Amino acid sequence: MPRVFGLTLLTLALAAGTPGAVATSAAAELPLPATASDKAGMIPGQYIVTLKDTATDRQGEVDDAVSAAIERASTMGAVVHHAYHHALHGYAASMSARTAATLAKDPQVQSVQQDRRVRATAQSVPTGVNRVDADLSPTAAIDGVDKRVNADVAVIDTGIDLNHPDLNVNQSGGINCWSPYLKPFDMHGHGTHVAGTIGALDNGTGVVGVAPGVRLWPVQVLSPLGWGSTSSVLCGIDYVTRNADQIDVANMSLGGAGTDDGNCGRTNGDTMHQAICNSVARGVTYAVAAGNSHADAKNTVPAAYDEVITVSALADFDGKPGGLAQPTCRADQDDTFADFSNYGPDVDLIAPGVCIRSTYLAGGYATMSGTSMAAPHAAGGAALYRATHPTASPQTVKSALQNAGSLNWSWPSQDGDLVKERLLRVSSF
């Protein structure tokens, strides 16, 4: 019979963390200093003229020297926009290249520099993206310039904010399995947060994802309240499988009760398992959340399925190994197995899942915790691998992520079994 999924969305609250709670407001965005662009950002016809230091420090004489220099430039056709009297002595003006060259020969002029565009940048590399070394990936190429990873990822969730400026959402793709007559527009926030961790744009604003700019397919299987059913999840998996010639990876940060019969659901009648097995056979790699019950993942599906990449959560507050950081949005020990995360033999990888900042509703950003936040790191890693290995099978992708993983995290801490999972690391992808 159909199994109903309470969106344990596998997400915890912003602060102390009650299972099932979700962030309700975007975290404040802290801008970084404006920085000059490269040579391509030079502004034609605009120059900054700096005068040589005068022998006096009397402000009146400095002002006279600057005014005299501006007057000389004006007689040559320059249009002055700014005068500088304190931090430096000089002015900024529009002028021809010939005039600029002439002024550069003036014995009172120290330098003539072409003006450049600058922009206020507010992009941060979230701790999770940093911890899995996505900023070192040659395919991710994170440098603040909007280059996009050539891969497609389906977010089977609450939908995605289709208009979020930091996400590359496939506007012609996607499906709403919860309300078929509506677009898969996220009114909950969970799916948008997951999407940002996977692939937020490397565009100099907001945050950046593990696989920046991947094409995101919104597959809404859950209501705005975060609930769904086996039938709606099957609708989403069916859609992904129908588009398996385009979709490389699917993320499922959701779950319900169930087990793996070891036979793709054919023995115990698990239709979701059957569907995922068929989808994997078509070439789609699935990354799924382990669950937030601090129990063996063998009793949570899809986490228990052998065909998927099941991801537990690491508590990491600074994006670095060593366990030296203090807790931020919730109490836990840095660089250890998250105290809420499921564990067990079905877990394939561990990835950051505590205090993860990502995209949110209304073009905003928010911080969340949960294995829901860990799984999309692996989905982004799988997308990086598929971008350079487009014919790789899901099993090959899974093995690649595991083989590239690191054991550089503190253990056993809160881990409930005797197996130390490899920490996702994508620097070689």
UniProtKB/TrEMBL annotation:
Residues making up the signal peptide according to the UniProt record:
1-23
Keyword Isomerase present in the record's keywords: the answer is no
Q: Peptidase S8/S53 domain: which residues? A: 153-404
Q: Domain named Inhibitor I9: which ranges?
A: 46-119
Q: Which residues form the active site?
A: D157 (charge relay system), H190 (charge relay system), S372 (charge relay system)
One GO CC annotation = extracellular space
Keywords from UniProt, A to Z, are: Hydrolase, Protease, Serine protease, Signal
Pfam families documented for this protein: Inhibitor_I9, Peptidase_S8
Q: Which InterPro entries match?
A: Peptidase_S8/S53_dom (IPR000209), Peptidase_S8/S53_dom_sf (IPR036852), Peptidase_S8_Asp-AS (IPR023827), Peptidase_S8_His-AS (IPR022398), Peptidase_S8_Ser-AS (IPR023828), Peptidase_S8_subtilisin-like (IPR050131), Peptidase_S8_subtilisin-rel (IPR015500), S8pro/Inhibitor_I9 (IPR010259)
Belongs to which family? Belongs to the peptidase S8 family.
Q: What is this protein called?
A: Peptidase S8
Q: Which organism is it from?
A: Streptomyces dysideae
